[in-house]
Amino acid sequence: MLVTFRGTATNATAVTRSASTVCFSMWSCPTFRGLLMLLVNFLPWRAQRQKKAIRRFVVMVFCYVVATLLCLIAPYFAAMSHQQMLSKRLVDMTASNTIKLNEIKHIKDIQQTVSTLTQLQNQTQKIRQQSLLLQTLFTDIESALPNSIWLKKIAFQEKKLVIEGLGNGYLSAMEFQQKLGRSSLMAGLQLGKMMAVDDEFSVFSFIFTANWTGAAL
Q1: How, if at all, do strands 160-167 and 149-157 pair?
Q2: Is the pLDDT of residue 41 over 80?
Q3: Contact 210, 186 (CB under 8 A)
Q4: Is-contact 166 197, C-beta < 8 A?
Q5: Residue 109 is part of which domain span?
Q6: Global pTM?
Q7: % of the chain beyond a pLDDT of 90
Q8: Quick check: is 24 in a domain?
Q9: CATH code (residue 203)
Q10: Is residue 155 part of a domain?
């Protein structure tokens, strides 16, 4: 019986050692360890932890996407706002420039009107001056004109004064020339031409020329 017991103990020890060797060999195998870890990962608390990790990952990805969209949308809206501000400023500047252009045009119109009025005033002043000179000339001619002479034409040729008329005799024409030569509006009064107009030599036609010293007419 003792031998049998020892044999049984020996067999049990051998079986235990064999089982240990098999377990160690299986644990040393990578495939077995991966299968064991896979089985472990499907434990209830591992599954919950994995779900939480997946949920956190999804939330993180969602937040990243939202942040990315905000980063992309914010500059777009800022650019749109800046563009609208620039458009408004452009409209305001255009309106302001239009008002200024209208004011400048109005000022130019006023200046043109003032210039036209100034020219008209100068022309009016010139006409008044010429009228006074002509009035003075006619007064001088009238005061120098004898009763025996009558005039046919008074003309201005550039700066020359031409007087044509008729007179009873040569002496009356000379008297008229002498008196008219005292006028301050003419210089160098000369008898240009004198001839009888009838057979009796009682009436003569004459032409006087002089340099006009007044303003140009």
Answers
A1: antiparallel
A2: no
A3: yes
A4: yes
A5: 48-144
A6: 0.46
A7: 15
A8: no
A9: 3.30.70.2830
A10: yes
